[in-house]
UniProtKB/TrEMBL annotation:
Entry-linked InterPro entries: Glutathione_synthase (IPR005615), Glutathione_synthase_N_euk (IPR014049)
Classification via Pfam families: GSH_synth_ATP (PF03917)
Region forming the signal peptide: none
Domain of life: Eukaryota
One MF annotation (Gene Ontology) recorded for this entry: glutathione synthase activity
Protein name: Glutathione synthetase
Length: 92
């Protein structure tokens, strides 16, 4: 898209078109949730919530996330390989 963010945000028609395309893309890519009206049906779905534009994150929070990222990844990896733990935890 050749236009800058400022002009896009001020053009309501273009913004609505971008939102429509984003929803279509989310549906095509499988970014879906079952609806509360039909929670056990995979035939009735809606797209998962998302934002069109990046959200600001305070730098202190971003640094905290970076600081724990490696440990968190190691934890997720270890849990994913522990079949007994997963079975016991998820069986409830």
């Amino acid at each position: 898209m050749a236009t800058g963010w400022g002009s896009l945000l001020q053009d309501e028609r273009q913004l609505e078109e971008l939102a429509r395309q984003a929803v279509d893309r989310a549906l095509a890519e499988g970014v879906l949730l079952r609806t509360s009206q039909e929670p056990s049906s995979s035939n009735v779905v809606s797209y998962a919530p998302f934002t069109l534009f990046p959200s600001l994150v305070p730098s202190a929070l971003l640094e905290q996330a970076y600081a724990v990222q490696m440990d968190f990844n190691l934890l997720v990896d270890a849990v994913s390989q522990n079949a007994a733990f997963l079975e016991q935890t998820l069986s409830r």
